[in-house]
Write a structure and sequence with these properties.
- It is globular, with a radius of gyration of 27 Å.
- It is built from 23 helices and 24 strands.
- Helix content is about 45%, strand content about 15%.
- By secondary structure, it is of the alpha/beta class.
- Helix 5 links the parallel strand 5 and strand 6.
- Helix 4 runs parallel beside helix 5.
């Protein structure tokens, strides 16, 4: 026994030594950061004369950036972790473009879309319109890539010149989605799946009850994606003179176009009008130097990225707060809707309601635009938010719902009672339906010899994952789901001045584009955020106003850590953070983000209004 004790004692000593080493490394790393912060002199950002504004579209376009704890983000980057998927704030990019158009120091824009991962057709359209407006100033927009994905090309199509690496390619694969189905796996694991839903087209639960897509889901998919794809090819065809074969979606026509160019995809891209010319990286570098002149320090063309450019303006890019003027407030609701309080990037019933309440209690705020980018989520949390919309209206402050890429299910719930609903033609909305689902493992446990037994004073259902659910219990849950659906449809009918039957006919979980939803009466007007702001001002009868984004107040700790580690990241050379992510790693990141959402399904009644077709924004 003493020998065993000696082994464990030595093992513990080794672990303790390793622990101390790690703690010392962390301590000296933080100390190094502090020394660097105090020693480094912050140089002012200089906008080069005749420089190009580089739009670094690294990640996904978003209405609001996801909150990441600055300490976690700093050490994750330092240690080479994958971290939060990269995001680009749409408003920052658009403001930078608008300011650069009137800035004599800026000679043009370079679109860097190599790491761009999309963000919804309507947001890409907003970016594209800003680029077209910039071109009207007489300054060029130029882009170069080794290859273009479909989303990358949509943005690139708004440029004057599109260059492609001679070994690159571009192909339109169209829109669609595929899902994994787990019914047979769950059966093999003897997991009991309990599903409750209302709406023939509410297919969110199908992966757990089927091994393939239902006819209703296929019909809904076809209608939605065909409409979005038609919008995509119409927009691109209007921007570039393209050979119709590359947009036809017909494999034979596409192969014929490639064959005509000796099976060279890059040459095919030039020949069919997809790109302006084929350039090596050095050829593109020389092209840009010809445009801007040589930056002797960097040995490259004169340039500044859009984030540095905005910072260099020292707040001039944004309107100064004017106490005497009225405000139109914007409250951003982005992400899945869950109960409780959440940071930016997730919609919390309590936290988003608090933002609306903050606008209601601010005497300067005369109207509110609720900017929604959400596939829905918790039914209870959605209603908590909608109640705050009603309170704003009682206070005499109109509310305009402005739909971004997605405002479906719970996302539509929180919009329904607004004074007006504005959507982009490409917005994914509707999906008026509800479901409930949970798993029990009584059969899985029995397989390994584990059982559940006990006593209860009534025979009313008790939800316990180690026990099954009898028919009475299933009936109770189904009744609550059906009641919630009736409430959903009735609320929409009352808010939209429609009959129950009119709403029910376009509900049942069906997903629509913004254009289709307007035809059915679910949306009032088609337009973007600026249109919604103007509509809010008109409703409030104000002419001169400022636009204010209502944001959650950071705690003292969050502010300190953000400032400290934000500066630390800026001080440490960028090369330390550089990490190229493979397509597989990026896809796994996306899947993992979706998997983590399962932990956020915390509706107190277990009832969810979530759009299964909608991409997570």
């Amino acid at each position: 026994m003493s020998g065993i004790a000696s082994v464990f004692k030595k093992l513990f000593s080794l672990i303790n030594v390793i622990r101390k080493i790690i703690l010392n490394i962390v301590f000296f790393l933080i100390l190094l950061v502090f020394i660097g912060l105090f020693a480094a002199e912050e140089e002012p950002i200089r906008v080069p004369d005749n420089g190009v504004l580089v739009l670094e579209l690294n990640g996904r376009l978003v209405e609001e950036k996801t909150w990441v704890d600055p300490v976690d983000a700093f050490f994750d980057e330092m240690l080479g972790g994958s971290g939060q998927p990269a995001e680009v704030l749409l408003s920052d990019v658009v403001v930078a473009i608008e300011k650069a158009a009137a800035d004599d120091r800026i000679s043009g824009i370079q679109l860097n879309v190599s790491s761009f991962t999309g963000g919804g057709l309507n947001k890409m359209n907003v970016l594209g319109e800003a680029l077209l407006a910039f071109r009207e100033s007489g300054k060029p927009v130029i882009t170069y890539a080794d290859a273009y994905s479909q989303d990358q090309y949509y943005v690139a199509a708004h440029a004057d010149k599109i260059y492609l690496n001679p070994l690159g390619m571009m192909m339109f694969e169209g829109y669609g989605s595929y899902r994994l189905y787990f019914k047979e796996l769950l059966e093999k694991l003897k997991v009991s799946t309990h599903v409750f839903k209302v709406g023939a087209y509410k297919s969110a639960v199908e992966p757990y009850t089927r091994n393939d897509m239902s006819d209703q889901a296929r019909e809904a998919n076809k209608m939605l994606y065909d409409e979005l794809w038609q919008t995509y090819i119409t927009d691109v065809a209007a921007l570039r003179e393209l050979d119709s074969r590359v947009l036809s979606g017909d494999m034979d026509e596409f192969l014929a176009a490639v064959t005509e160019h000796n099976n060279d995809f890059a040459q095919m891209a030039v020949g069919t009008g997809l790109v302006t010319d084929l350039y090596s990286r050095e050829q593109f570098r020389q092209e840009m130097i010809t445009l801007t002149g040589l930056d002797d320090d960097e040995k490259s063309w004169r340039q500044i990225n859009h984030e540095d450019y905005l910072e260099s303006l020292n707040g001039q890019a944004f309107k100064e707060e004017t106490k005497e003027r009225d405000n139109i407030a914007i409250v951003v609701a982005r992400g899945v809707i869950v109960d409780g309080r959440q940071k930016a990037g997730m919609i919390g019933g309590d936290s988003t309601a608090e933002l609306l309440r903050k606008a209601r209690l601010d005497d300067q705020v005369k109207a509110v635009v609720l900017r929604i980018d959400s596939p829905g989520g918790s039914g209870f949390a959605s209603e908590v938010i909608r109640q705050e919309v009603l309170e704003l209206q009682k206070a005499g402050k109109p509310v305009i719902a402005s739909m971004s890429s997605v405002a479906a299910s719970g996302g539509y719930w929180i919009a329904a009672s607004a004074d007006e609903i504005w959507a982009a033609p490409e917005t994914i909305t509707g999906s008026i339906g509800v479901f409930g689902m949970f798993f029990t493992f009584e059969n899985s446990l029995a397989e390994i010899g584990v059982y559940n037994d006990g006593y209860h004073t009534t025979n009313l259902p008790v939800l316990d994952v180690t026990r099954g659910l009898d028919e009475g219990g299933k009936q109770v849950v189904q009744m609550s789901i059906e009641k919630f659906y009736r409430d959903f449809v009735s609320m929409v009918a009352e808010s939209r001045d429609m009959s129950y039957d009119e709403v029910h006919a376009v509900a049942q979980g069906r997903v629509w584009t913004g254009s289709q939803a307007q035809q059915f009466g679910l949306v009032d007007q088609l337009g973007g955020l600026d249109d919604a702001i103007r509509a809010a001002a008109q409703k409030a009868d104000v002419v001169e106003y400022d636009v204010e984004v209502i944001e959650a107040d950071l705690s003292a700790r969050d502010k300190f850590m953000r400032d400290l580690f934000g500066q630390a990241s800026a001080w440490i050379p960028a090369s330390v953070f550089e990490k190229n992510h493979s397509p597989i790693e990026m896809e796994l990141q996306r899947v993992w983000q979706e998997v983590k959402l399962l932990d956020k399904f915390n509706d107190p009644n277990g009832v969810y209004a979530l759009c299964e077709l909608c991409p997570l924004q």
